[in-house]
Amino acid sequence: MTAGAGAAAVRVTSRCAGCGSCLLTCPTHAIRPDGGQLLVRADLCTGCVECIDVCPVDAIEETTASARAETTAGGAR
């Protein structure tokens, strides 16, 4: 699965414990620290979901295709 140009295929939720496993696992370095939280860069996320597999607290969720389309169309996320 490949993410659209406007929204990432995954998102980091508030359950994030800050362990950094996803940062080390992401092959495209799409997950970046930003002001005390982790953000997924849509332009780098390929949707491989390796980050979901390694997260020990299940803090990363796959976004739905409809949510990605809504974000791409200008919807708030």
UniProtKB/TrEMBL annotation:
InterPro entries: 4Fe4S_Fe-S-bd, 4Fe4S_Fe_S_CS, PSI_iron-sulfur_center. Keywords: 4Fe-4S, Iron, Iron-sulfur, Metal-binding. Residues 6-35, 36-65 form the 4Fe-4S ferredoxin-type domain. Its cofactor is [4Fe-4S] cluster. SUPFAM superfamilies: 4Fe-4S ferredoxins. PANTHER family: PHOTOSYSTEM I IRON-SULFUR CENTER (PTHR24960:SF79), PHOTOSYSTEM I IRON-SULFUR CENTER-RELATED (PTHR24960). This is 4Fe-4S binding protein.
